[in-house]
């Protein structure tokens, strides 16, 4: 194999794994959009919030410590214990469910039947509110997240590929783990929506509210459920990205990377989110590899958006989205 | 007349039981518009009860009150001898009141089978965890519900389209699938909002037959709204006639047919 081809293969593999992480964020958007027609701008902040909560719980941080100290003149910061990762993840999930309930009962319930743009605005508000709450609860400094996921160069792949090609592939262990977890997550989500009572109800609500009511489905319950599931997806994405690049406010910007993924895959398709993520991941890495040097590099910053623009022009519903038919 | 213990025997020999649902002095307003004015009537067990009236008479509003989609400002709804507190539509559905819609509300993205299965959602009790490992109770439940659904699909003669996505079906079949979904809930009271609207003669005949068969076979109590006078008179045991939100007639088809007020409402008052 020529050197170029070998490098390209490595680039594609890395791209696929980056794509999985994009897909993970996009998935959260798709879930909520499908079930309630809301484009949830806060999805990225939810990932940040989940990651911060997880770190905070693991380190035994006192939530709202700054606030408490400011009011009572105390100087507490930590409980003085550390919570094991698995338990902390479960507790964080409980917090995300609580958040889902609050979102439904304090915000979305009052906006039923409103224009999509109003719902969208509400989620923008939610995003900033949640960001503020996260800051207030856990402080704004950059934190490292380590739930025990393997990180760094995968030596086995490096050795094996070196043996075959005379060039060792650099593949991060974390990327491999993320890929496996994302695959399991997607399989679980599909099984949930296809085979369980709640999944069936969720699909029913996504399809027709009136009909869903008439067969005895509580819309409010389903929406809490959907926001919880989206919260869970955000948690997984938050763990992966947080482990990779630290828990900081820029984490919420990964939501912006999910946008082109959605344009490609379509807003209503779970497989679309996956395939879209992979295409963007591989596309931007390959583009950087092949064209990047010619234009001075840093193409990863804009490639995805240009691709999304092209899709908007030629196939606005995305690869897997519901076809847009206008009746005249 | 309103004695719950008493019933009556219809001309074709079916036994009609006591009162299942009673509407007492229902008034429904939308802002300044009065959609329903002080209407009372009852529905008895096993009967086919029709609500008829000209356009805008408030028939659909009445059905929406029964199914909980609208909450009346005044009046009481009694179901199985108990006064019903204000309820959300899904709570009403869980009490055993199933319905169809005038403009068909199906899950377009799902197959016919999946649509009808949603009618069984309230019969599925297994917890999320049990469903996740798909053992014992959850599996047994799924099998039982599938059997019940297949029976209804057979009964309504839609076996050949079981796996077809609903969005691809013609109008008449969609109406039948909607009926199947409502029946799948084994309702104590079935509400049909213009089940024959927009159908051709053949489809109307089919639908009439199915409604009669459902009533006969499962003993389902049915309340329906219909425009087509001929159809209503053939189908129903008792008829409520509404006009401009008021009740102007109530009784057997023959009684209603000879009611002067009803004739006036439908044909207009004769000019001498």
Number of DSSP strand runs of chain B: 12
The helix-strand sequence of chain B is: EEEEEHEEHEHHHHEHEHEEHH
Distance between the termini of chain B: 37 Å
Number of strand elements of chain A: 0
Q: Strand share of the residues of chain A?
A: under 5%
Major sheet size, sense and barrel closure of chain B: 6 strands, mixed
Poorly predicted runs of 5 or more residues of chain B: none
- Helix and strand content put the structural class of chain A at mainly alpha
C-alpha-based Rg of chain A, rounded: 21 Å
Number of domains of chain B: 1
User: Quaternary status of these chains?
Assistant: heterodimer
What is the topology?
The complex is a heterodimer of chains A (328) and B (272).
Chain A: H1 3-36, H2 43-58, H3 65-72, H4 85-107, H5 116-138, H6 155-165, H7 173-195, H8 197-207, H9 209-214, H10 219-245, H11 254-265, H12 270-290, H13 292-295, H14 303-314
Helix pairs in contact in A: 1-7, 1-10, 1-11, 1-12, 2-4, 2-5, 2-10, 4-10, 7-8, 7-10, 8-10, 11-12, 11-14
Chain B: E1 8-9, E2 15-16, E3 19-30, E4 33-44, E5 48-52, H1 59-66, E6 74-79, E7 82-83, H2 89-94, E8 97-99, H3 112-118, H4 128-133, H5 136-155, H6 171-184, E9 189-193, H7 201-218, E10 221-225, H8 229-235, E11 238-243, E12 246-251, H9 253-257, H10 260-267
Parallel strand pairs in B: 5-10, 5-11, 8-9, 9-10
Antiparallel strand pairs in B: 1-2, 3-4, 3-6, 6-7, 11-12
Helix pairs in contact in B: 3-6, 5-6
């Amino acid at each position: 194999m020529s050197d170029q081809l070998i490098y390209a293969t490595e680039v594609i593999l890395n791209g696929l794994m980056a794509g999985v992480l994009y897909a993970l964020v996009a998935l959260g958007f798709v879930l909520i959009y499908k079930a309630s027609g809301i484009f949830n701008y806060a999805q990225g902040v939810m990932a940040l919030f989940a990651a911060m909560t997880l770190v905070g719980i693991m380190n035994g941080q006192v939530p709202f410590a700054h606030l408490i100290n400011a009011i009572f003149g105390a100087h507490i910061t930590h409980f003085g214990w550390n919570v094991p990762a698995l338990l902390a993840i479960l507790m964080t999930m409980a917090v995300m469910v609580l958040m889902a309930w609050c979102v439904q009962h304090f915000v979305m319930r009052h906006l039923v039947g409103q224009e999509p743009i109003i719902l969208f605005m509400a989620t923008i508000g939610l995003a900033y509110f949640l960001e503020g709450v996260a800051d207030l609860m856990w402080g704004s400094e950059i934190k490292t997240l380590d739930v025990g996921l393997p990180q760094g160069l995968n030596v086995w792949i490096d050795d094996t590929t070196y043996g075959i090609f005379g060039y060792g592939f650099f593949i991060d262990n974390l990327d491999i783990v993320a890929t496996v977890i994302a695959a399991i997550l997607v399989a679980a989500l599909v099984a949930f929506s296809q085979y369980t009572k709640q999944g069936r109800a969720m699909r029913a609500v996504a399809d027709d509210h009136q009909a869903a009511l008439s067969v005895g489905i509580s819309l409010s319950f389903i929406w809490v459920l959907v926001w919880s599931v989206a919260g869970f997806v955000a948690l997984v994405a938050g763990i992966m990205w947080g482990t990779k690049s630290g828990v900081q406010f820029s984490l919420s910007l990964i939501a912006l990377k999910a946008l082109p993924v959605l344009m490609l895959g379509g807003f209503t398709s779970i497989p679309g989110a996956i395939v879209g993520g992979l295409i963007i991941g591989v596309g931007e890495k390959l583009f950087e590899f092949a064209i990047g040097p010619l234009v001075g590099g840093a193409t990863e910053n804009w490639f995805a958006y240009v691709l999304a623009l092209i899709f908007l022009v030629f196939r606005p519903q995305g690869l897997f989205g519901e076809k847009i038919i206008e009746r005249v | 007349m309103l004695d719950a213990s008493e019933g009556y025997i219809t001309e074709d020999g079916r036994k009609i039981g006591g009162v299942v649902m009673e509407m007492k002095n229902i008034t429904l307003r939308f802002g300044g518009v009065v959609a329903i004015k002080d209407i009372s009537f009852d529905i008895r067990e096993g009967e086919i009860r029709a609500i008829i009236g000209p356009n805008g008479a408030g028939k659909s509003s009445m059905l929406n009150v029964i199914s909980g989609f609208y909450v009346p400002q005044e009046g009481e709804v009694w179901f199985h001898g108990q006064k019903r507190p204000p309820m959300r539509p899904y709570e009403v559905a869980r009490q055993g009141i199933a319905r169809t819609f005038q403009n068909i509300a199906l899950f377009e993205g799902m197959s016919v089978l999946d649509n009808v299965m949603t009618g069984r959602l309230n019969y599925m009790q297994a917890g999320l965890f049990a469903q996740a490992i798909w053992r014992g109770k959850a599996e047994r439940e799924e099998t039982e519900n599938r059997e019940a659904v297949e029976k209804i699909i057979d009964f309504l003669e839609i076996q050949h389209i079981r796996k077809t996505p609903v969005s691809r079906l013609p109008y008449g079949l969609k109406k039948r699938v909607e009926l199947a979904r409502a029946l799948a809930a084994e309702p104590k009271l079935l509400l049909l909002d213009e089940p024959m609207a927009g159908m051709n003669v053949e489809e109307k005949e089919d639908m009439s037959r199915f409604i009669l068969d459902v009533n006969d076979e499962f003993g389902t109590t049915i309340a329906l709204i219909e425009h087509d006078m001929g159809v209503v008179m053939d189908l129903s045991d008792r008829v409520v006639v509404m006009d401009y939100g008021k009740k102007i007639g109530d009784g057997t088809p023959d009684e209603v047919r000879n009611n002067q007020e009803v004739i006036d409402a439908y044909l207009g008052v004769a000019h001498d």
